[in-house]
Amino acid sequence: MTLLDPAEVFRQEASELFEALEAALLDLTVRPDDRDLIDTAFRALHTIKGSGAMFGFDTVAAFTHQFETAFDLVRKGEIKPSEDMISVALAAKDYIRALIEAPNTTDPIIGDAILDDLSRF
Predict the structure, then answer these.
(1) Residue 69 scores a pLDDT above 70
(2) Residue 106, CB half-sphere, CA atoms under 13 Å: how many?
(3) How many CB atoms lie within 10 A of CB 1?
(4) Which residues have CB under 8 Å from 45's CB, separation 6+?
(5) Which of 94-112 are b and which e, b meaning 16 or more Cβ less than 10 Å from the residue's Cβ?
(6) Which of 21, 66, 97, 108 is close enough to 44 for a disulfide, judged by CB 3.0 to 4.6 Å?
(7) How far apart are CA 12 and CA 87, in angstroms?
(8) What secondary structure does DSSP assign to 5-54, as a single string?
(9) Residues 48, 70, 59, 104: what is their CA dihedral angle, to the nearest 10 degrees?
(10) Are 57 and 6 spatial neighbours (Cβ–Cβ below 8 Å)?
(11) Quick one: pLDDT at residue 1?
C-alpha cells in the first residue's frame, strides 16, 4: 500500500483549481456579468483556502482568505470585475501558487502589496 503525501495531494488539487480560477478570471474580462464565472472563481478560492488550512498551508489559507473576502464583493454584486481588478486577481493567484510551490522564495511584502491593490476595488 502506498501512502500519499498530503502536501502533494494538496499541490495537485491546487494546480487544478488555479487553472479553473485563471480561466474564470480571464473570461470575466469579456463577460464581467457572468454569474457562473464569478461563482467558479469564488469556489476555487474557497477550496484553496479550506484545503490549504487543512493540509497545514497556513500562509496560503490566510492570504487566500483575504483574496476571497475581496472577491466576495464581486460575488455579491457590489463591485464589477474590471480589467484592473482582474489583473490584480491574477497576480494574487500567482502569489498563492508561489506560496504553495516555493514558499521560501515568496516575499510577504509582495503579498501585502497585492492585498492593498485588491482593497482599492
Answers:
(1) yes
(2) 21
(3) 2
(4) 21, 64, 67, 68, 71
(5) ebbbbbbeeeeebeeeebe
(6) 21
(7) 24
(8) PHHHHHHHHHHHHHHHHHHHHHHHTT-TT-HHHHHHHHHHHHHHHHHHHH
(9) 100
(10) no
(11) 54
Nearest-angstrom CA–CA distance, 16 and 87: 20
Contact assessment for residue 7 and residue 56, using Cβ atoms and an 8 Å cutoff: yes
Residue type, 59: T
Res 104: pLDDT: 87
Residue 41's identity, in one-letter code, is A
Q: Which amino acid is at 67?
A: F
- Cell 464589477, residue? 80
Helix 83-101, helix 35-54: angle, nearest 10: 20
Q: ∠ CA 21-25-30 to the nearest 5 degrees?
A: 150
- pTM, full prediction: 0.92
